[in-house]
Amino acid sequence: MPQTKTSANRPRLAAVVTAYKRLLHPQHVVDRLLDGYGWAGTFHHPAMDVVSLYVDQRGEGDLSQERMDRHPTMKMYPTIAETLTLGTSKLAVDGVVVVAEHGTYPLTEKGIMKHPHFEFFEQVTKVFRDSGRSVPYFNDKELSWNWDWSKQMVDTSHQLGFPLQGGSSLAVTWRVPSVEFPSGAAVHEAVSVGYGGMGSYDFHGLETIQCMVERRKGGETGVEWLQTYRGEGFWTAWQQGVWSQALVKAALCRSSTLAPGSATFTDTFPSTEQMRALVPDPVAYNYQHRDGLRCTMLLLNGLVRDFTFAAAIEGQAKPFSTQMYLPMPDGRTTLASFFSPLVYNAEQMFLTGKAQYPIERTLLTSGLLIAGVDSAYQGMQRVQTANLAAVHYQPNPESTFWRS
Amino acid sequence: MLTRRRFVGYSALSSAMLAYRPLLHNGWGQAPAQRPLRLAILGSTYRYQSQMQTLADRFLVGYPYDGEWHLPNLQVVSVYVDQLARQAEAAPSPYQLAMTGAKVAPASSAKGTAGGLGRQHAVAAQPAPEKSEQMSDLSRARSHQFGFRLCSNIPEALRCGGDRIAVDAVLTIVEQDDYPSNDKGQILLPSYDFFQQCVQVFEDEGHAVPYFNHKQLSFSFEQAQTMVKTANRLRFPLLAGSSLPVTWRLPDVDIPLGAEVEEAVMVAGGYDSMDFDALEALQCMLERRKGGETGVKAVQLLEGDDVWAAGKTGRWSNDLLSSALSRSDTPLGLTVLDGRTQDLVASGVLPQLVKNPAAYCIEYNDGMRATLLLLNGAIMDFNIAARVAGHGMVSTQFFLPPPPNVTDSACLAAKIEQTFQTGSAAYPVERALLTTGVLEACLTSRHKLNQRLETPQLAVKYQPPAESQYART
Asked: What does the alpha-carbon distance between residue A33 and residue A97 come to, in Å, rounded to a whole number?
């Protein structure tokens, strides 16, 4: 529950971002903290102040000066350390907001952009160590493109004892219908169907699955192996039933953007032949959890422009399914409101000093993304994931998705 | 990228698939338990993304419902398209053509009109048909593909070419095609004519079947009243309305049944010709208040600067307006410029964004007040907030999924099918009746220089369904 703070005692936040431009994640996240947003039927103003800002890449389209002009309490600093110390010698803020998505960074040899989540983390935690004090840390999206670094980030947060919370908005946005995965249910198989590319939106699909299946009987046990399927191999696996076609169909029946397979129709369920025609480059990450649960994350560009989920739950006659709804400002909306629950949950962490959902979820999904790209790089070989087999955790029994 | 050639190639394949219904049934493991109901579909125009195409197709190819692709146990046996009938009437007869030596013209493509297709503005990523295909009639192609009878008049559609009524239900989708308007700005949609022609057949044969009327019953409340009375007299279920009351809500909330509601504000924008839909969505929530619906005492439609002036004098609650706007995902102005969030009320920016605001002010007989604010230029979605005793402000967005799928119409298809299958309207037609009357009275107010009008004719009383009827599963 939010703590009541006096106006003099509002948490002070440092924002550390890649690029502050229109419709980039830093703009969505930091703007909400500065300007507020619609929440629970009112225009909500967060009970905290962003007092300092570090922008790694400025240039054309940069909005940070405009934001500082309207919010003079926020000052820009040339280094991350100064952003946290406010130019003094010690940590001088009560929370850190890191948004390291977007911007322009080199690619790895496997094609993942080297977003500086870890580099930012290192500089932030150096200030924590030097000051002998740590504060809650929000990290948008994945931990790092490098597994060892991702693991190190989680380990460091435990060593220094600060809450670290991150992940994708998919885990916390509206669901249509508004349903939660039954706590403690036995689940045999789960799928998500989404769109976008590997090394970016695959993370959203993985979080879509993980925020649900982590609630299963026994909690999360880790992942043993993963195999990526693309191109013709995808369709062969589809036909062979490597993942359940019934579950994919159930997920697709939750989509509101299913591409009509036939000209002049506006909403039809596509045949497999139509899907093949609509989706020139399908992607699947098929992976096995240690307790036997099999999951598959599908990216079907050309067929859908939303994220849906379906699972076979023991004792339920038909698949459990929903859409993780993203009001997407690509012509459908003007406001990426799915950042509102992400920011709201971050606020709750800053106010309570407790993570609202375990960082191990994000550790696992960050690792699954890396494994998915690795498998594709190795010619669609199955990759053993001993590192991910060691990620065990229990979910927050409370639901944290957008319902009010 | 999918090329047009490839797309068309596969769509030919799909046509064969779609036409072969048993295959679809097997694919989904659904076996019809009983003889399918025979359905006649009557509408204005069957062109791409028309309301008729969007809704009628669902009874041909199925629709998403409750997590499955649902294939209704209904057989579309006949279709009547008013546009084709009117074109045929206007065209020269074969005799005239022969006399002038002209050749028989090929089936002409329909005339495009601006109104009635308010939901095409959004981005469609899918390959859409060519422009000419979009505007041309699809009913002939559908008739070939699905084997229904394409009829040249309404009695023929109900009798399927025979001499007795040969359908179990009638679905009508009357929408703007190129119908004229009156001096109040109402499009003279022939919903009442469609209904009366069906009733004539029902009366002639002493047999009436369930009837769905898309959106408002008529431009005229008097005609709408006659329609409801006729359905009661002949004892056939009549369902009417739009998809807005039955679509998903963000969040999933309703007015608690029997709660005291003091006031409600609906705020909408971005769509043409959707004031009926917005008023009906408002009504579907307010009818749940303590005592049920008691009817409307007076209305006033304000426009222009009078809207802002009325807001300042407390004609509606600014808190409710602010609450409703907090549910919008489509603020315009600075949000479009640089992505920022905006408190549109507190910033005072609304008068700059909205050039032609309209406020539909409604006073109910039991003292409740409601206002529909049409704020084109400020937002592009539909949101409501109501002050409910003991529950504070209840607010939500009526979710309109993007074109071309517009899956809210699947939610409506499910209610239509339920009405046809059970022989009982899924919700009272009095909701659409009252909304039809409120809309007409508001447009009359506008015509009378925005006067407040007493509406004794709108003493429409009814009780809501105990269960909420919007999509939740």
From this structure: 10
